[in-house]
């Protein structure tokens, strides 16, 4: 398993789509603070408010959309160019192959998802002279939840990327799915008690509460933490089963 992960990590480091996405997010993180400061001034904004209302809300889109592009190139494209057929022919267990791919893909998704909370926050803090910094416990809590919900969404994306063996189709489907599915599920929850329960316990609803970790306690906090873990395990198992039975051409 260790060798499989190393092999996937080597391929990931050579993946141009990953570095392109990282560079774009870094550019936004380092340039956007300049626009804010010049437009509103450095003295009227607190870092904590900007972190909660702008960075975390913007990162909600990063978590569920940007890794879709990487999944298309890092996972789906290996089917279309024949790389996956050669990998499967190596004799390794398909479950181990899928899990190695999923682990490395999740790590790359985490790297993407932490650019805004860490780099963006660092840049805006400098420009705002560290005025009104978020508390360390709050900041650490949002980082932890960001990681958990990132791997939950990544496990879904890996499953879809395995179903669609063409990178273009995979990326197109996933972008549309993750843009509209939460709205569809929310609409269904208003007309059906069953869908209401599903929506209330889904990552599509709960990940919006990452920024509210300081006001969530007890059972709600447990739900906020456990749901992405269960989602990751469930979709990881589903993906490995699909990959084990999939005919690879």
Automatic annotation (TrEMBL):
UniProt KW keywords: Membrane, Transmembrane, Transmembrane helix
Transmembrane segments: 18-38, 61-81, 102-130, 136-161, 173-201, 221-243
Superkingdom of source: Bacteria
A Pfam family the protein falls into: ABC2_membrane_4
Keyword Phosphoprotein among record annotations: no
Record's keyword annotation contains Transmembrane: yes
Protein name per its UniProtKB record: ABC transporter permease
Natural source organism: Fredinandcohnia quinoae
Lineage: Bacteria, Bacillati, Bacillota, Bacilli, Bacillales
């Amino acid at each position: 398993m260790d060798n499989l992960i190393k092999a996937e990590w080597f391929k990931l480091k050579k993946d141009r789509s990953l570095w392109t996405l990282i560079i774009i997010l870094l550019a936004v993180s380092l340039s956007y603070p300049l626009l804010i400061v010049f437009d509103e001034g450095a003295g009227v904004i607190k870092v904590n408010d900007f972190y909660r209302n702008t960075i975390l809300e913007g990162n909600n889109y990063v978590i569920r959309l940007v890794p879709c592009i990487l999944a298309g190139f890092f996972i789906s494209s290996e089917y279309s160019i024949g790389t996956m057929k050669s990998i499967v022919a190596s004799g390794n267990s398909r479950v181990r192959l899928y899990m190695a791919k999923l682990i490395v893909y999740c790590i790359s998704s985490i790297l993407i998802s932490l650019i805004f909370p860490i780099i963006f926050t660092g840049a805006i803090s400098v420009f705002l002279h560290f005025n009104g910094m978020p508390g360390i416990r709050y900041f650490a809590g949002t980082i932890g939840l960001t990681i958990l919900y990132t791997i939950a969404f990544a496990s879904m994306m890996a499953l879809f990327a395995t179903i669609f063996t063409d990178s273009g189709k995979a990326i197109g489907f996933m972008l549309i799915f993750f843009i509209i599915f939460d709205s569809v599920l929310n609409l269904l929850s208003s007309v059906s008690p069953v869908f209401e329960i599903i929506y209330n316990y889904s990552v599509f609803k709960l990940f919006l509460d990452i920024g509210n970790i300081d006001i969530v306690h007890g059972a709600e906090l447990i739900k906020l933490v456990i749901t992405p873990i269960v989602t990751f395990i469930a979709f990881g198992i589903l993906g490995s089963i699909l990959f084990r039975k999939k005919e690879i051409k």
